[in-house]
Design brief:
A hairpin with a 2-residue loop joins strand 4 and strand 5. The chain starts with a strand and ends in a 15-residue tail after the last strand. Strands 6-7-8-3-9-10 form a 6-stranded mixed sheet, with helices on both faces. It has a 4-stranded antiparallel sheet with strand order 2-1-4-5, covered by helices on one side. Strands 11-12 form a two-stranded antiparallel ribbon. With 275 residues, the chain is α/β, with parallel strands linked by helices. It has a single domain, classed as P-loop containing nucleotide triphosphate hydrolases (Rossmann fold, 3-Layer(aba) Sandwich). 31% of the residues lie in helices and 28% in strands. The protein contains 9 helices and 12 strands. Helix 4 packs across helix 5 and helix 4 runs parallel beside helix 6. Belongs to the ABC transporter superfamily. One of its GO terms (molecular function) is ATP binding. This is Iron complex transport system ATP-binding protein. InterPro entries: ABC_transporter-like_ATP-bd, ABC_transporter-like_CS, Metal_Ion_Import_ABC, P-loop_NTPase. It holds the Pfam family ABC_tran.
Length: 275
Amino acid sequence: MENIISMKNVSFIRGNQVILKDISWEVKGKEQWVILGLNGSGKTSILNIVTGYQYPTKGEVSVLGHTFGKTNLPELRKQIGFVSSSLDDRFNQTLRLETVEDIVISGKFASIGLYENVTNEDREQAEQLMTFLRIDYLKGKTYDTLSQGEKRKVLIGRALMAKPQLLILDEPSIGLDILAREDMLSLMKEIITHQQCHVLYVTHYIEEIIEEMTHVLLLKEGQIVAAGQKEKVLTDECLSETFQLAMKVHWENNRPWASIHKNMDWTKFAKAESK
């Protein structure tokens, strides 16, 4: 499969507000992408379109070889793993007393809770995933007893249970301390290396872009600032425009880090106030 995601001249308008404008973007095989942008830049809308929960107002979309308007979206979603803080909140409210292994298994059926017959093979696969994610010690524990980092790993296990071709991680580090974040990022390396799926990673922080992530999409106010190989996209100029601050980028151990550029007038990057 040449293109994992293809968007051509995609726009999305809600009421009188333009959320996305003329987005043309491709994710090809063996590419691992990060999406960066401020709140309100259009990141969530792009994810909603990729997962088929939101149709573009105009433009063409294809995901995993399925062209929107010509495919069964519920079937497509079975090939996409999804992890987000909103999903975490949902499990906290509805399945707080479910065991870790049952939550992981539910990913096979894309359900919130288990309503299908579970085979011994399903349980073996869940146990293998828990070992892979270093959470096998949580077997038998309920969701409400877990730390934030443990909950995030359980949801990643659930997303991997269906052996997705595309794994979407929407701000997976939110609420995690530095130790838990670095542990999760080390798992991202293992997932990219061993799980044979394409990762789409959404974050606010460029230091979370590990060596295995190859490409970056920068968004500002529903439009693309830059898209491509991370070394070419993560420049002072592109980040400053994206985050509306004078940013300076440096690299350590093949990871980018950003700081505010003290010797530049950052106000020229700030969003103009409405008159």
